[in-house]
Amino acid sequence: MFYEAYGSVCELATQVLLAGNLNLIEKGEWGTLKRDITEIERMLKALIKSLENKPLNSGTLGALDPLLQLNWRRTLFFLSVFVTNIVSYCLKFRNPI
């Protein structure tokens, strides 16, 4: 579950990089997106590392202690907000008002 989320972030980073290289994203916006992706990557890596160092009885979120649950939910929230912003930006770019 966590590695899939990290893989999705890496795919998104590649797409943003390509869009920046093709000048489909403004330089200022590209820097903001890159910074946000880096922050989400950092949070996911930290969460994965903390879970690898802690034995769990099951792979479900319920087996995690409350702090890890909070960190995981926070990471998912930031990832979902970030993806929503990317989609909104792309739709605005493709269909200017």
Quickly describe the structure:
77% of the residues lie in helices and 0% in strands. It contains 3 helices and no strands. The longest helix is centred in the last third of the chain and has 29 residues, at 66-94.
* Total individual domains: 1
Distance between the termini: 39 Å
- Counting DSSP E segments of at least 2 residues, the number of strands comes to 0
Helix percent band: over 70%
Radius of gyration: 16 Å
Number of helices: 3
* Nearest-integer average pLDDT: 75
Q: Low-confidence parts, pLDDT < 50 over ≥5 residues?
A: none
Percent range for β-strand residues: under 5%
Describe the structure.
- With 97 residues, the protein is an all-alpha fold.
- The protein has one domain (2-94).
- It is 77% helix and 0% strand.
- It is built from three helices and no strands.
- It has helices at 2-21, 27-52, 66-94.
- The mean pLDDT is 75.
List its salient traits.
97 residues, mainly alpha, 3 helices
In terms of topology, how is this protein built?
Elements: H1 2-21, H2 27-52, H3 66-94
Helix pairs in contact: 1-2, 2-3
